[in-house]
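Entry 12.
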Amino acid sequence: MTDTRTTTDHTEIRRWVDRHDGAPARVGNAGSPETVLLRLDFAGGASEEALERISWDDWFSAFDRFALAFRYRDTDAGEDGAFFELVPR
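Predicted 3D structure (tokens):
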């Protein structure tokens, strides 16, 4: 079983997302910047939400502003069980 880790380190988060062919995103039409709903958009993802890709700078700005942390399972790209969630710090 792989370990689950929690981090706020931007470099660590970005490396994990890049390794899993993801990109920073938010829910489209989420309203004002104060109500942004952060997401990650992965190739081949089957999201029901209309995602809008955004820059890493904008994503991390909201990530820090809302005091979030990134919880993830440390797996290799393509390995079953790739898991992440955004949680309060």
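Annotation: The beta strands are 4-7, 22-27, 38-42, 51-53, 68-73, 84-88. The longest strand covers residues 22-27.
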